[in-house]
Amino acid sequence: MDFDLNESQSLLQDSLRRLLADSYGFEARKAYLASETGWSREIWARYAELGLLGLPFAEEDGGFGGGGEETMIVAEQMGRHITLEPWFSTVVLGGGFLRHGAEAALRQEMVGGIAAGEVLLAFAQQERQSRYDLFDVLTTAKKDGSGWLISGRKGMVLHGDTADHFVVTARMAGGQRDRSGIGVFLVPARAEGVSVRGFRQVDGTRAAEVEFAGARASHLLGEPENGLALVDRVVDEAIAALAAEAVGAMDVVHGMTVEYMKTRQQFGKPIGSFQALQHRAADMLVALEQARSMAFFATMAAREEDALERRRNMHAVKAQIGRAQRFVGQQSIQLHGGIAMTMEYAAGHYFKRLTVNEAAFGDTDFHLRALADMGGLVQAA
Amino acid sequence: MELRFTDAERAFREEVRAFLAAECPEATRRHMIAGKSPTKQMVVEWQRKLNAKGWATPEWPVEHGGPGWTPAQKYIFREELQMWPAPQPLAFNVNMCGPVIIEFGTEAQKKRFLPRMANLDDWWCQGFSEPGAGSDLAGLKCRAVREGDHYVVNGQKTWTTLAQHADWIFLLVRTDPNAKKQEGISFLLVDMRSPGITVRPIITIEGGHEVNEVFFDDVRVPVENLVGEENKGWDCAKFLLGNERFGQARVGASRERIRRLKTIARETLDGGRPLIEDPEFRRQITEMEVELKALEMTVMRVIANETKRAGTGKPDPATSVLKIKGTEIQQGVAELLMKAAGPYAWVDGDPDAEGSNEWDVAPDWAFGLAGVYFNWRKQSIYGGSNEIQRNIMAKAFLGL
Predict the structure, then answer these.
(1) pLDDT (average), residues B199-226
(2) B252 with B81: CB under 8 angstroms?
(3) Which of A256, B74, B314, B341 has its CA 20 to 30 A from that of B397?
(4) Closest A-chain CA to B387
(5) Would you give the distance in Å from CA A62 to the centre of its chain?
(6) Partner-chain residue, chosen from A1, A9, A320, that has the shortest CB–CB distance to B294
(7) A70-100 pLDDT, tens digit each
(8) The whole model's pTM is what?
(9) Which residues of B touch A261 (CB under 8 A)?
(10) Is B29 an 8 Å CB contact of chain A?
(11) A291 touching B, CB under 8 A?
């Protein structure tokens, strides 16, 4: 195994690192956060110039043919700066649905716009009753001529307030919690019957409540009535990206904490000289390194074709990183003391992102239970 | 980035498995699956088979009989043995003293000791800790005074694992009491049959005899048994301890124990249904498994780093994770195994002893599980306690 970056991967990492170092300091981020969209269109254009937005798409579709490793590299840098732009919703989630679920013609029609930063996507799956079950779908899809009309309400749609198209899960057949009968549809945000109410989430990212009242879908993605397989696949890849993002954020907030421990003086010496605090910081490093290992594993596991094996491994990823990021986030605040409780200080913002990241697509409890129900990772003798 | 094993490595894994299937005595395997430590005879018999195959000394250079494996192959070998399970080659010989002799020893020492170490003709034990020198190892007091062509050793060692089996002991002794504490230490090889050595068993809380006190009363050691230079023994000790930490992850051993745990939890009833169906218990197993998966990847990272930057790179912070996480997981799984046995875990007796359940007072599988749980509390204490590991991390990696 080789965990080092190759030449083009290093180049990718360096260029993104430079961009974010120059234009995504904590003060700049505050300004993006306070702007009307809640993120920076200008930075978004820079991502497009760097090729980030077309990165995971195949070259014949107008992308750059990047794989899971490249997504991991980008996600980690995004996590390091707790960025606010819709990269995850447009490229990882939306892009995932296009790569795995769209016909060639549709891919070729859409990828160019995405890569150029002109088209934004959002994944609308959450419903009030569904919690973390992706198959728990009440939103319906009704056949209408050759097309489909979508009706229902989706919540917590990440970057739903700026999306040009929604990827929507809707029930074509069966009952609310049936695993079959789900369809995945592409619905233009401007379609009649779509209404969007945007808001800010606790970590600063934007989201929306989206209502579909007989809105006409433009395309069906994946297999009709077997949309769950597509959703699982895309979400599994998304979990790998979330893992890398969490590692980036943990690394920064841990480093920030250690630096603070070296400078903050109490009782006439730096608080980092106290063993109780040193051991806590060491435990954070253990958690961080274990999570980093797991993020590598996530990238390996997300490309597994066997859906059951993939799910099993991604449950493990989410559970392990979830525990690590909660610990690192909470302890960063604790070791800093009062200063980290202020909105003015960066640590709290990392903590909030880590908290949201932990629960995205299922929190630690959810994934531990799901993995345990599947019999865990090690088979009995 | 290449996040997978190579074909050659996968083939090597199969080769190791095939060798285990063909050569590892079934009685040894059964004994170990039951949670018992292998007996001296089992360890010797198995190591001689490994040695005949050229596999007894994975860490040694080829010119001293090592197999010339890559770090990944060494890892695969170690993990496969743990998962089988089969005894590891005796660590005191092949992972501790052997590498020190290869690194610091004379040609005569290499010739005399290494082949017998590899074949386990001599069983070695480690004389480091003393009653007053545990985590603060450099505070050791055991004295060696040069008299002509001998050192005369007086003092006491403790926690000496399996000294009751040992033919030889490698010893840290104080040769210059006036120097700074790390600078007056020497590394000596001592024949356990020397007059003046007394071994006294220490019975640990589970009832087993694994560790000992060893007393030295005017023990005469030929000066040719000094390894490296006089008063430079701390270099040997640091080198040896650095090698030791690497093997403490024991991912394969934990996987084998989890496999065992699941088998037991399937056969044990709890509230009228198999224990494995209890969501709370299952969750506790799963928590161990996900941490173990991360640890396995951490080991891979350390190996990859070692392969690419052997001896040149900075120490990898991932290395310190291995001891802390490896032992936490092993202790956690041992605890769950004991919990699985419920009240039947409580039958007292040395868990390693054969036939200890002869009165049939508990299911055979349950016997000794509490003993292993008690015994394994040692893991977070030995090899540099987990608190010492955190001190090292704070200092070396965090700069605190």
Answers:
(1) 96
(2) yes
(3) B74
(4) A279
(5) 23
(6) A320
(7) 999 999 999 999 999 999 999 999 999 999 9
(8) 0.93
(9) 400
(10) no
(11) yes
